[in-house]
Design brief:
17% strand; Rossmann fold; 178 residues; alpha/beta
């Protein structure tokens, strides 16, 4: 079985400027390339798990998100980093255009996207790590039975009873991956 480094996108991969969907507004977090390079050397697959309610809210289209994702993964490749896949939830339960307005199993804190990745890539979740900046990230990882849950304290959460480790920056996560 494989192991994975699961990453939230906004706040972990890129600075969370709020509903980022254009490359001009996309700013990689300090330390994200170093973290991913170390993870690859340790034989982790890198998988991004992200809620994208901006699609549901009509702030940007699913196609615009996919275009940005293609650009983002190409930027990782320029740094010798292969992103195995980006799994995303375009839904929102209340504030949404009708096509995306629903209670779904894929929106974090639900674990469906993690489970899909596990099944698709034969991942051993007990040997995997989830890095996020919100309590919903930590709960999704916990709900998927990922024991190693690292919360990067952000404007959203400063404490957590679900995270197994709390750090203040992505740079600090590099030392936590073994």
């Amino acid at each position: 079985m494989n192991k994975a480094l699961f990453l939230d996108r906004d706040g972990i991969v890129n600075v969370d400027h709020g509903y980022v969907y254009k490359k001009d507004n996309f700013e990689f977090m300090d330390g994200i390339f170093e973290l991913c390079q170390k993870a690859l050397k340790l034989n982790y697959q890198i998988i991004i798990i992200t809620n994208q309610s901006g699609i549901a809210r009509g702030y940007y289209t699913e196609n615009e998100f996919i275009q940005l994702t293609s650009w983002m993964t190409a930027e990782f490749l320029k740094n010798n980093i292969v992103i195995t896949e980006v799994f995303y939830c375009p839904h929102h339960p209340t504030s949404a255009i009708p096509k995306y307005k629903k209670q779904c199993a894929c929106r974090k804190p639900n674990p469906e996207l993690i489970i899909k990745a596990k099944d698709k890539y034969n991942i051993d979740l007990s040997k995997s790590v989830f890095v996020g900046d919100k309590e919903t990230d930590m709960k999704a990882a916990q709900n998927a039975n990922i024991d190693n849950r690292i919360l990067v304290a952000s404007k959203y959460d400063q404490v957590s009873d679900v995270a197994t480790t709390i750090v203040t920056s992505v740079n600090e996560v590099v030392e936590k991956i073994t």
